[in-house]
Amino acid sequence: MAFCTKLDPSSILTSQNLIKLSNAKISSSSSCSLLNCFPFVLSRNLRLKNHGSSLVVKASSTVTDPEALKVFTVPTKPIEGQKTGTSGLRKKVKVFMEENYLANWIQALFNSLPPEDYENGLLVLGGDGRYFNKEAAQVIIKIAAGNGVGKILVGKEGIMSTPAVSAVIRKRKANGGFIMSASHNPGGPDYDWGIKFNYSSGQPAPESITDKIYGNTLSISEIKMVDIPDVDLSHLGVTNYGKFSVEVVDPVSDYLELMETVFDFSLIRSLLSLSDFRLVFDAMHAVTGAYAEPIFVDKLGASADSILNGVPLEDFGHGHPDPNLTYAKDLVNILYKENGPDFGAASDGDGDRNMILGREFFVTPSDSVAIIAANAQNAIPYFQSGPKGLARSMPTSGALDRVAQKLNLPFYEVPTGWKFFGNLMDAGVLSICGEESFGTGSDHIREKDGIWAVLAWLSILAYRNKDKKLGDRLISVSDVVKEHWATYGRNYFSRYDYEECESEGANKMVEHLRDLISKSKEGDIYGDYVLQFADDFTYTDPVDGSVVSKQGVRFVFTDGSRIICRLSGTGSAGATVRVYIEQYEPDVSKHDMDAQVALKPLIDLALSVSKLKDFTGREKPTVIT
């Protein structure tokens, strides 16, 4: 027998004040006391949110299984704008704190999955430590329990990097996991928050699932939840609620264990022990602050003062946790000062991106993944048999293509979004991959991995210097890069980001470009460049045959130069326009030019062809990489 309670208009449901039920009045043909019908009402003092109309909560009057949790439903309505981008759903924090906003998306996710993918199963929950994560974790836990999940494994304080979530999913054979992060976007009450779901292989949910989630957000009518106390995330251990349990775990241990199987830590330690080698790692007050000391200091012997901004903060110390030349300027200044450190690195909000620097030298992400791939077999034990294959996102420079060609390895070009690498990895044809947006990784997990990239570079440097004696000149980051250019040629590359543009103008710019390419033909002249082809990139997955289209407008010229324009799906407000410019230079004597100088004719052409200023009103980019 079921009973209904109508709640007065003063009662509210928010993500922070999860389901507080008060002033409840029972309406039923049977007589019963409030305590008998709804013991959870008085024991938890739960409230539900309402905007002027009564809400109905249904609860079973009897529980046949003494260990079963009482599940109740919260009526809700669809909320517009919950379509995920390339890396989950991202909005301003205040949007997620609105009535049922987060809860709707989480329930829509469960409505999109086959029950066997989560019922009585294990899910992982972690995040980057940003504002609202702790409150959101309680919402997710209670909705997961309401939908029949058996166990949630959550990082202490709700913290677990995106790469670590992927690693834990794979090690613990979990059904999947939630990642609470807006990645490299700012955090705090006035800034960004995000959520995404990774599947049992540890990879981001494919578009077939995210499309279903979006569809279900448009038709959702109720949210399933349970009445349990908030979980104490500050202490390790297991809390049982009948057949449902929550385990708070160390967010570092499983990930560190995996890293020790991938890399030769003793080799890296020998490099860091050299008195004339200095390392600086900037955690940007983001999630890798929880990993930096255990890995770089405790395990590898770096000095404690080599870690900058090593304490994760909810607002990232009022910073923008995006490891690039603009937002990691403090680290850049340290590496470019006289007699600066030999090696510098930074990672982003959720720990999946990286920036690599040498003394007075910046390594582009496109070059970084190519150099890691070229040196992996010798320097990294995980690849001692050689990589299976290489891949990059379409906008990333062609430097990796040349390594694949020389090493006679399979090569793949995919759309932006790490999920597109996952199928190739699961099929056993891809080992190392990267994106120009500071993402690098391998098939050890199914996410890009900032600390992995740092350890890969330290491994390369350690291997190249392993026979050096005290006082010998060490092979530097710039030495490694310039030797690579001498072998493979240099792909000059730059990216112009125009953040938070008006969406209407940005979309009109893309439509203008699509119209232009529809009329273009091979041999068309663009300034000093001859067009080979122009298109809007379409990708057919070689594993499952799925097709994605409209992934970026590109102009490819006969000399290998490229201009690419696309809108990014990683922001939370407006549109981010990205313009990518690339030119290949085989002549070693021309490898030391500044990229902006070498690319200026092509940059000018890109801005002219796109009419970016006309459509967006922007005079200059927000970020130049």
TrEMBL record:
<dbReference type="Pfam" id="PF02879">
    <property type="entry name" value="PGM_PMM_II"/>
</dbReference>
<dbReference type="InterPro" id="IPR005844">
    <property type="entry name" value="A-D-PHexomutase_a/b/a-I"/>
</dbReference>
<keyword id="KW-0119">Carbohydrate metabolism</keyword>
<comment type="similarity">
    <text>Belongs to the phosphohexose mutase family.</text>
</comment>
<keyword id="KW-0413">Isomerase</keyword>
<feature type="domain" description="Alpha-D-phosphohexomutase alpha/beta/alpha">
    <location>
        <begin position="366"/>
        <end position="472"/>
    </location>
</feature>
<dbReference type="GO" id="GO:0006006">
    <property type="term" value="P:glucose metabolic process"/>
</dbReference>
<keyword id="KW-0809">Transit peptide</keyword>
<dbReference type="Pfam" id="PF24947">
    <property type="entry name" value="PGM1_C_vert_fung"/>
</dbReference>
<dbReference type="GO" id="GO:0004614">
    <property type="term" value="F:phosphoglucomutase activity"/>
</dbReference>
<keyword id="KW-0150">Chloroplast</keyword>
<dbReference type="GO" id="GO:0000287">
    <property type="term" value="F:magnesium ion binding"/>
</dbReference>
<dbReference type="InterPro" id="IPR036900">
    <property type="entry name" value="A-D-PHexomutase_C_sf"/>
</dbReference>
<dbReference type="InterPro" id="IPR016066">
    <property type="entry name" value="A-D-PHexomutase_CS"/>
</dbReference>
<dbReference type="Pfam" id="PF02878">
    <property type="entry name" value="PGM_PMM_I"/>
</dbReference>
<keyword id="KW-0313">Glucose metabolism</keyword>
<keyword id="KW-0460">Magnesium</keyword>
<keyword id="KW-0934">Plastid</keyword>
<dbReference type="InterPro" id="IPR005845">
    <property type="entry name" value="A-D-PHexomutase_a/b/a-II"/>
</dbReference>
<keyword id="KW-0479">Metal-binding</keyword>
<feature type="domain" description="Alpha-D-phosphohexomutase alpha/beta/alpha">
    <location>
        <begin position="254"/>
        <end position="357"/>
    </location>
</feature>
<dbReference type="InterPro" id="IPR045244">
    <property type="entry name" value="PGM"/>
</dbReference>
<protein>
    <recommendedName>
        <fullName>phosphoglucomutase (alpha-D-glucose-1,6-bisphosphate-dependent)</fullName>
        <ecNumber>5.4.2.2</ecNumber>
    </recommendedName>
</protein>
<comment type="subunit">
    <text>Monomer.</text>
</comment>
<keyword id="KW-0597">Phosphoprotein</keyword>
<feature type="domain" description="Alpha-D-phosphohexomutase alpha/beta/alpha">
    <location>
        <begin position="82"/>
        <end position="221"/>
    </location>
</feature>
<dbReference type="InterPro" id="IPR005846">
    <property type="entry name" value="A-D-PHexomutase_a/b/a-III"/>
</dbReference>
<dbReference type="Pfam" id="PF02880">
    <property type="entry name" value="PGM_PMM_III"/>
</dbReference>
<dbReference type="InterPro" id="IPR005841">
    <property type="entry name" value="Alpha-D-phosphohexomutase_SF"/>
</dbReference>
<dbReference type="InterPro" id="IPR016055">
    <property type="entry name" value="A-D-PHexomutase_a/b/a-I/II/III"/>
</dbReference>
<dbReference type="GO" id="GO:0009507">
    <property type="term" value="C:chloroplast"/>
</dbReference>
<dbReference type="GO" id="GO:0005829">
    <property type="term" value="C:cytosol"/>
</dbReference>
